[in-house]
Amino acid sequence: MVGLKASQQAQIKVENLDDKNLEIIEQYRQVMREQQLADKYNQLLVKQVSQLETALVAIEASQAELRSTRMMLGPLLEEMVLSLDQFVAADAPFLISERRSRVENLRRQLLDASLSEGEKTLSVLDAYQVELSYGYTTESWQGKIDDRLVNFVRVGRLGFYYFTPDETKAGVWNQGWQPLSSEWVAQIKQAAQVAQGRQLPTLLTLPATKIETM
Known about the structure:
Helices cover 62% and strands 14% of the residues. It is an alpha+beta fold. The protein is rod-shaped, with a radius of gyration of 43 Å.
């Protein structure tokens, strides 16, 4: 009886030891799984840090390039505005007040610290685009030459003309106003009517003129 009881107690101890061993083994496995996850996380973290460092290097390089570009952009915009001013001064004097005002406005914008370099650049490019548009548009309006009322006609940058309201005199711009014979009045008037949308575009023969080109 004593032997049986001792045997049972020994069996219980063995089972308890097995349970503890299993628990230890499971804990070991859990630790190993956690270690594997930690290793993978560390590898991912190292990769992300490396990518971040590469990105920071690229950003710093871009910022340095941007600073260099900004340093060059200011003088370039000033040079473009100066060139535009010189071009307007040398060109035929159509819409001259409007065009000079546009140049002066650009100069003020370049000095305006509240405007970004991008905004200043767009303003300069817009002004150039307006000047370029004069090369493929036709306009007619009334104005004065030496206090005399005339009808102006601009045909792209191919010709800049005028004729008097009584249709007796006409002129063409060639580094200054040059008089034309009265026989040209009809053609110039026709060009004016086309510009005003009062007549369909048609082939016109007009005297040559010298207008600057961009």
